[in-house]
């Protein structure tokens, strides 16, 4: 006896999955030029660690890229998220997070903040191997505890309630003994009739409010350092950032080519330079080098992923513990992750806004277009724009466990991409600086299921 | 029924089981294997897309032995041997552990395909297995449109109900009956199996009725599943697959939460394996069609082309003077130098030198 089933459907090319083979060769081909960025970043942190010995004022800050101001003021600057990300990328975040948790900042708190607050705790107390009882603990602790204490703290967080309170938390950890300055960055709601990305009455007014605060910030810094601010130096810094940003965007645009010559992971590796490294010719040279290599790859027909078959957009802040791992994982499935909200819409991505004669306004505008500071309408506009620019087939939503600001709109964005462009997507859990939230099976199931859906879609389109 | 290796086959009553199909002239068979976190399922489908045998084997954990037992029992029911199976596709958490699989697919694709075959016109599939939950929106063609997976927590899955049974000290069969008899909503957390167990113990200590506790846990799971469904969009008809579909209390609470009737398949656990088998059937049929077309092309221009086709156990060669080594269409390796079963297809078409 047999069970009669309905007629078999059309034959489909469902080839996302592979024959089962034990060996998994690395099919990713990362840019070589980004290695220079790694050296620059290492040098930058070594410089921070010796700041006090050199008699420099140290500012801790978080949120947006205020560093051109700090650089012009002759300060040494430590970006909280950047240091947390560095620890996570080196798999050394554990001791800082444990110290933060011991102090009271538990796992639900943003892991950037949690790690950095843990560093603040550790900066103030020496931990010996004898005390910890754990062999190797001192080595791990050493880096996390290496930050010099701040002389003052500046908070400039857009779109995130945890970030906006981070300064007050740090203030308490340091015994309420240093001054704070908080830059308020209002949400760009985008819900007025004339609203849109970089347009409308809301966009015209809000940056002026922030520009005024930046002027007050500079007064605050002058008071703290007892030194007049160097406005020419600020313009000079912004010149280098503008130039670097232009090169970066030109290089990114080249990745619309299929197969792509560089991927999202290369842009992740290039975040530190554009986000917080000193603005100077080295920064420009770095992005010139990246662009040159990409152009060379296009000439030589070299792709970033062997056998690129799917072009994917990555939504969510990077899972710093997993940079190399995820690079290989996506490439294993012939997926080129070509663009992302974090890499493409977060760091000086509108260089035309930078006016060297009025640098603070352009800076204010950039701080307001942080990708977690928009209302939904603008976020949808940006997502679809990127998907069109890069010929996106699917979206990987990194459901960042402790970053509600980045995660909150993701399901709506997924629906918009599907509705307006027929773009498939999947979600996987993880976190910016806490590896414990990542589960490989979750990524694998979602990714492969999405690729199978794309294959089905392509087969249907062919019929 | 006890079978070899001490593994219990809890359901050997799949359609056609024991009836025997046998391999006749021109007929071929394919297999789908679903290795889940607690059960192994195998389904055999014939060249016409008809299911001829199915097996579900309870294991306790992802198990190669369970797969072996399920496959062997399924073959026995169909009166087939492994050599009669032209293609095997595996799915499920343990899909990579199925040694005879030619290819793997996710449970999402396979459950959608299986459910759509068993319930034509379905638009939403809810699959709750031992370890995870899925909501799958299905399009007009019975293919996956959108999907949502539960996160890393096993809340609302078969494992979650195991935890509930342990805390209430009842069998799995009893817990659903208890839930249907319960009334008061005790607002149990649905977020985490571990927390839910703690909550259940706490409620027991407070003197709550076991029926109310069971009902509350089922209600919480239904609510959590509703959250998954919201991610893909509510649609009807709805089919429920996976082992938890056999829990009538959850079905009832889910229907209440959804506001829609739920169709539960006769054997909801085999949907994934059936879907895998049907995809295998499609692929093999397409490969045969490609091979036939290529052979026809070659025959039409015998002096200019040669073709070699390797279809299952039979090999056809159109003679010529420029035959290159045959290639497997799937891995592009030489057929004589690797272990893949020759799957189909035309292998080489090339101009003949003059």
Give me the secondary-structure topology.
The complex is a heterodimer of chains A (463) and B (354).
Chain A: H1 35-49, E1 58-63, H2 67-72, E2 76-79, H3 80-89, H4 94-103, H5 111-124, H6 129-132, H7 137-144, E3 152-156, H8 161-173, E4 180-182, H9 201-225, H10 231-254, H11 264-269, H12 271-275, H13 281-300, E5 310-315, H14 323-332, E6 335-340, H15 341-344, H16 359-368, H17 376-390, E7 394-400, H18 404-407, H19 410-421, E8 424-430, H20 440-462
Helix pairs in contact in A: 3-5, 4-5, 5-8, 9-16, 10-13, 17-19
Chain B: E1 29-35, E2 39-46, E3 51-58, H1 64-78, E4 85-91, E5 103-104, H2 107-118, E6 124-128, E7 133-138, E8 144-149, H3 158-168, H4 172-181, H5 193-205, H6 210-232, E9 238-241, H7 248-258, E10 262-264, H8 271-300, E11 305-311, E12 314-318, E13 346-351
Helix pairs in contact in B: 2-8, 3-5, 4-6, 4-7, 6-7
In short:
Chain A: One of its GO terms (molecular function) is metal ion binding. The complex is a heterodimer of chains A (463) and B (354). Helices cover 51% and strands 10% of the residues of chain A.
Distance between the termini of chain A: 34 Å
Largest sheet of chain B: 5 strands, mixed
Strand content of chain B: 15-25%
Give the overall shape of chain A: globular
| Unreliable runs of chain A | 9-22
Instruction: Report the radius of gyration of chain A as a whole number of Å.
Output: 23 Å
Number of strands of chain B: 13
Structural class of chain A: alpha/beta
- The succession of helices and strands of chain B, N to C, reads EEEHEEHEEEHHHHEHEHEEE
Number of domains of chain A: 1
Strand-and-helix sequence of chain A, N→C?
HEHEHHHHHEHEHHHHHEHEHHHEHHEH
Using the alpha-carbon principal axes, give the shape of chain B. Answer: elongated
Uncertain parts of chain B: 1-19, 302-309, 311-330, 332-354
Number of helices of chain B: 8
Number of DSSP helices of chain A?
Answer: 20
Biggest interface, chains and residue tallies: A-B, 38 and 50 residues
Count of DSSP strands of chain A:
8
β-strand percent of chain A reads 5-15%
